[in-house]
Amino acid sequence: MNDENLNLADYEQELSEQRRIRREKLAKLQEMGRNPYLIENWDVTHHSGYIKENFEAMEGKQVSMAGKIMAKRQMGKASFIDIQDKEGRIQVYVRQDAISKEEYEIFLTYDLGDIVGIVGEVFKTKYGEISVKATELVLLTKALQPLPDKWHGLKDPDLRYRQRYVDLIVNPEVKETFILRSNIIKEIRKFLEGRGFLEVDTPILTTIAGGANARPFSTHHNTLDIEMKLRISNELYLKRLIVGGLDRVYEMGKMFRNEGMDKNHNPEFTSMELYQAYGNMEDMIDITENLISTVAKNVLGTMVIEYQGRTFDLTPPWTRLSMQDAVKKWVGVDFDTINTDEEARQVAKKYNIEDADKLTRGEIIAELFEEYCEEFLDGPIFITGHPVEISPLAKRAPKDPRITRRFEAYINTWEVANAFSELNDPIDQYNRFKEQQAQLEAGDHEAHPMDEDYVNALEVGLPPTGGLGIGIDRVIMLLTNAPSIRDIILFPTMKPL
Length: 497
What we know:
Layout: H1 3-31, H2 48-53, H3 55-58, E1 62-75, E2 78-85, E3 88-95, H4 96-99, H5 101-107, E4 115-124, E5 130-141, H6 157-162, H7 164-170, H8 172-194, E6 198-199, E7 205-206, E8 218-221, E9 226-230, H9 235-243, E10 248-256, E11 268-277, H10 281-300, E12 304-307, E13 310-313, E14 319-322, H11 323-330, H12 341-350, H13 361-372, E15 381-384, E16 396-397, E17 400-404, E18 406-411, E19 414-421, H14 426-441, H15 452-461, E20 465-471, H16 472-480
Parallel strand pairs: 3-5, 6-10, 14-15
Antiparallel strand pairs: 1-2, 1-4, 2-3, 4-5, 7-9, 8-9, 10-11, 11-20, 12-13, 15-18, 16-17, 18-19, 19-20
Helix pairs in contact: 7-8, 8-10, 9-15, 11-13, 12-13, 14-15
């Protein structure tokens, strides 16, 4: 066994000993009739941040606070502790003659991590530190596990994600990230409501996982005795609402895709989709660039963001480039001169595209783009002109029915938004679903299933409509400078230990 393993074993033994001692302290308190777990509430009148920011007005005033003990310094009949609440840390001065000898002796048994309630007077020490002089101190919760120390702390990302409750306590910047996440989401809602969009809820559990090309999670409903799926998108339900006359709707919520995991992908993720009756792809471009840039401005104070050492200017208007022109620029293949599937397959074989003989011209353009072009899309940039084969829900372009009125927005080479002029031709939609269903039955688990009720809704009448989906988690990653999606999801999906 190497030294590192020996040190780890010693550390774990020390933790076990600390837990035993803390349980003994708890038992003694319970014998004294001082069981902290029986306390139901504590009247909190002030928090640390407010006291520090408003010291001149608060000096000499009595406050009631609660927080976790993060540091403790004993000096005979007086001690200092640092308590941490939702707004930060503040020092508390505890004197024996201020709380009584008996209470002070009990206080001396408190451990780091214990949660205490404090009543006291705001003052400043001779060293200039804003503090609270305790006149009452009560143990509200006994922490039976010690907080991690700095050496063995929560440096291991895997442990941080599994024990986010500890991560939030010992890493203040983590809490700030999630406060920022909340503020970003508030600003997105504010922007959309300012444009007249109504927030709605649509089913998460459904019999048809439609609206995207992705592999769903499946389950079984016992009472109905039917197979059901977690949604991969909420698109088709939202467009049903446009059919019903709710002209501008949006939903922000969880989507689920049974696919790979990496720094940009989690099986459960947050997405926002909106639909605007009588709008088109151009309207969705306007919303996308203005929403993301406005949120950045309101939350960060700037439209120029820094992400992992790189700078991105989100100020509208963003660059536009067609997918076909991107392939021409970075692959060197001009599909204006390639008009048949067979010609395209010869190109695909040259570039080692898998199963080239089974692909159409449009699918090959998409494969070449994904394989050889996405890495150059620093952005922000809109990629337009997606082939109809990979866009089963988008309108065809009037001048070239092989492509659609669709765009994807990229920042930092990531797709952050996807939008269409929505297909509202029920006959065309049915035929595209039929082609996708054949692919699904042939073994393509990501192909779009047939949804006859949605086709029926289109027959009732979907007005010309623009639709947009934004990957909220990716936008939050960019605006918080988070290197992994797990850093901006409170409880990311983890394999059980």
